[in-house]
Amino acid sequence: MTATPTRQRPASRPAARRPGTRRQRLVPGILLAVALGYVLILLIGPLGGIIYYAFKSGISAIGQTFTQPDVQHALYLTFIIMLITVVVNTVFGIIVALVLARDKFPGKRLVSALVDLPLAVSPVIVGLMAVLLFGRGGWFEPFFAARGIQVIFAVPSMVLVTIFISIPFVIREVVPVLQELGLEEEQAAWTLGASKAQTFFRVTLPNIRWGLLYGIALSAARAIGEVGAVLIVSGAIQGQTETATLFILRAFDQFQDQQGYIVALTLAAFSILLLIGIETFKRKRTREAR
Amino acid sequence: MAGAITVQGLTKSFGTFRAVDDVSFEARAGEITALLGPSGSGKSTVLRMIAGLELPDSGSIWVGDEEHTDKTPQERRLGFVFQHYALFRHMNVRQNVEFGLKVRKTPKPDARSRVDELLELVGLAPFGDRFPDQLSGGQRQRVALARALAPRPEVLLLDEPFGALDAHVRQELRRWLDGLHRELGVTSLLVTHDQEEALELASAVVVMRRGRVEQAAAPVDIYNRPATPFVAGFVGASNLLRGSIRTGQLLFGSTAVADAGELADGSDAQAYIRPHDVLLTAAPADRSFRVKVERRTNLGWQSKLQLRLGDGQAIFAELPNDELNGIDEGDDVNASLRNAKVFSVDAGEPPVGPAEGDTSHDALHTSDEDEVLAGRAGLN
Questions:
Q1: Taking the domain B5-224, which CATH number applies?
Q2: Would you call A207 and B89 a contact, using CB atoms and an 8 Å cutoff?
Q3: CATH class (in words) of the domain with range B237-377
Q4: Does position B347 have pLDDT exceeding 80, yes or no?
Q5: How many CB pairs under 8 A join A and B?
Q6: What is the CATH number of domain A60-289?
Q7: What ranges do the domains of chain A cover?
Q8: Model ipTM?
Q9: Which residues, 6 or more positions from A167, have their beta carbon under 8 angstroms from its beta carbon?
Q10: Per-residue model confidence as pLDDT tens digits over B305-334
Q11: Do residues B57 and B199 make contact, with C-beta atoms less than 8 angstroms apart?
């Protein structure tokens, strides 16, 4: 991910053009087949399965599923959690990325490594940590209980764990772009009279926009797909703390496979459209700039 | 509109490294002043402090009669041109040039006509819609210059503006900048490691080395009356020869070859002699000494000669073929020196050494000028 489109280099001449290089042609062929096969079997296959099962009993089943209050509430809840997560992780992600890319401070490498922690720790463990902190007898429980705020088995803890789990995406996408960008454009803006805020919004932000958008898309996709941590902190109360993914789990438990597939397809479609949308938008804009 | 730039006692350290050490000079209003020095000499740091991009540890900075020392870059209203252009890559040429006007809330029609005027001035009027990555290096730097000039800054600061360009474009832009400056008359401070650029463009040159000012003077004086051995060796090509001082004369062995000015008797001396300041004659002349012509390279209108002194020192000369009178390899002839710059050895070491990282000088060095330039350009 770079903010600047690089010009297409002319493709290097394939060695296979010359005679006596059949083996050289064979190796890229095999690699291509393996790569495509891997992607097809592991990504496209399951997706096709979901699409097939979701539509198996016709359009009416889909209509019935989406008119169920439980389904509507679950999708709504997932959407709200995603929205809050994305906003929080975008704002703080940019701040953390700026600090990591620009400042020198003791412990910087530790902070940089910690940012990746959510990728390494199982979401179930994240959920357990939240329960330990906010559940009965947890460190922070008295504070919130005294103020009548229900954290565990309620939306706040669900938002909290989802934010935690999707912390790395914006930061990881933006830091390398900032590093490549360097400081000179910003300094040029200062000497031209732009305030720090003007410089950020007119120079820095436009330069990191594609990395940022990609990070946001990944964050959003991660947020709507989260199940383990949310399952533990929410209690999965039907119609109250049941997100779309939790609804899918329950649907399968109760032999409502059809509904499970339909909601699953909805989530998958949203995520895929998000990524495709950004990629297309980016290409279009890049071509305009040519 | 133009004001002089005055810096006084400017000092800046990065950690334990003293990048700029008590630097004072004045860049006269309306003129181009060059800050010349090898890489690591602190010249860019001085420029960045004047722009407010670095804060000095001590010292003061004035433009005209306004003190800038503690101002932010935004308040200083200076034009700054970076070596690597620093154009806004997501904006087209027009938007780049307009930026400084926009953030200062210049009314739209005024801004538009000012941008047109500047694009015309830098010869890029047809390129307004292009993006920086669709322009050549020279064009980018002209956009950067137009962008810096758009808000009508009092002074223009140029940080190695031609350093990233190839030799041909560099020459061309240098001439172009000279013309532009004659037209605009904005006070300009140019940082460069290229002595030719400094001598050609600037009406005053400040030579820096290891964070200090070695000499600040007009280009002619820098060239003809270097204040220190470093300046003598750094500006222009020079032979470095060792000798001794007796009764105000520089001696090679026991032969007096040049005036030594005020230098004390008996001290060891170093002399810098430019290759074209060596004269060769068949017959002995005033204060001449014997040399052997070891090699002659004929360049058509002039020749380069490698000469060996009786004490083993080597010296390079460049002379028009008309003046050689058939002198050729293997001949023993008499050499005399013009404009020798004589320093006591204690006055400081010659401009070689790891600190400058400049390999283009040694005792035998002369001067393929282009080679020297190419070598230096490669350093940054």
A1: 3.40.50.300
A2: yes
A3: mainly beta
A4: no
A5: 73
A6: 1.10.3720.10
A7: 27-56, 60-289
A8: 0.81
A9: A89, A93, A115, A118
A10: 999 988 888 999 999 988 888 888 888 999
A11: no
